[in-house]
Structure formats: C-alpha cells, structure tokens
Q: What sequence folds into this?
C-alpha cells in the first residue's frame, strides 16, 4: 500500500526554523515539561476511551462524531507541541490547550472530516496492521532521533540554537510519527506517506 503525497496529506506539521534558545531552560527542559506530561497522561486516558467509542460509531454509521473528532485532533495537537518543546524545536513553552495556536512555533493541522469515513479500514485492528511498516521504520528512526537529541542538547547548551540540519531531521521524524498516529487513531482515512517531508 503506497502512502498519499506528503504535500496533500490531511495531517500537516509545520515548525518555525531554528531560533535562539535560553540555555537555562534547555538545561532544565525535562523538568519544565513535567506539568504537560501529567495533563497528557489524563488526556491520553480520555483519548483511548474516545477512540473506542468512535471506533464503534464509525464502524456502524460511517461518521466520526464532530465533538469527539475535535477532542482527538486537539489531543494530537497538544502532544505535538509538547514533543516539539522536548525535542528542542522551540524554546517557547507550550500552551495548555487542545485548540489550534497559529502563533506557536510547532503547529499541527488536521483536516476535519466527519462524514463518509472508511468502515473497512476502521474494522478492528486493520489500521494497526496497516501501520506496522511505518512503526518498524519509525522504531529505527526513533533510535536515531535519541542520538540526535542527545547531541543537539549539548550543541544548544553551547551555541544557544539548534543547527538547521538537525532541526529538519527532528521535525521530519515528528511529522512522520504524528501522521501515523493520526491514521491509527482514526483521525484520517488516507494511508500516511513514507516520508519525513
């Protein structure tokens, strides 16, 4: 199964280019993000409940309830901002919000499609099985990302900003991961592209 064109895919992640960062907040980044991790833990529990409710509704009606879809998109958007903050893509502290924030340097947009959802790929485990090739590649990329982030942390502490090449790689991996997550969580029906772009 081939993925959609990255430019046309209904989940897009954009990030502002590398900017100067406060070395002190970079040094304590893991601690500073803890409040978000606590909130996201509870939101994640709610997201799994909504996922299962939505799964039944889509399977039987072909429709994703609008309020549930917006919550799930907001959850994915929030996790993207927190991942971007932890991954040194920005020094700006993420907002505690499910809403879109065009001013934040790491932005996720998801096309909201409520009607005519694909019941076949919604059927139990099919999405997760179809996503396995992506998860295998992402597992390898994740190890590379950990090495890059370790090196990037020291670079940002020393020079005060993330090099452009490392920034592009981190954005690309996060973009790929969030597209696959959105597909697996039933936010979109289009198969994700195998691409960092």
A:
């Amino acid at each position: 199964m081939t993925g959609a064109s990255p430019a046309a895919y209904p989940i897009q992640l954009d990030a502002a280019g590398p900017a100067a960062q406060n070395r002190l907040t970079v040094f304590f980044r893991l601690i500073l993000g803890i409040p978000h991790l606590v909130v996201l833990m509870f939101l994640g529990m709610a997201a799994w409940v909504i996922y299962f409710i939505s799964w039944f509704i889509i399977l039987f009606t072909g429709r994703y309830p609008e309020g549930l879809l917006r919550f799930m998109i907001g959850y994915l958007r929030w996790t993207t901002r927190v991942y971007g903050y932890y991954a040194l893509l920005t020094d700006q502290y993420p907002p505690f919000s499910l809403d879109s924030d065009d001013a934040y340097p790491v932005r996720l947009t998801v096309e909201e499609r409520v009607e005519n959802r694909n019941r076949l790929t919604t059927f139990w485990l099919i999405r997760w099985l179809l996503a396995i090739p992506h998860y295998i590649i992402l597992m390898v990329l994740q190890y590379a990302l950990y090495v890059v982030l370790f090196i990037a942390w020291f670079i940002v502490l020393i020079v005060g900003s993330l090099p452009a090449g490392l920034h592009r790689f981190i954005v690309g991996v996060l973009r790929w991961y969030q597209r696959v997550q959105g597909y697996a969580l039933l936010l979109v029906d289009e198969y994700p592209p195998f691409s960092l772009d």
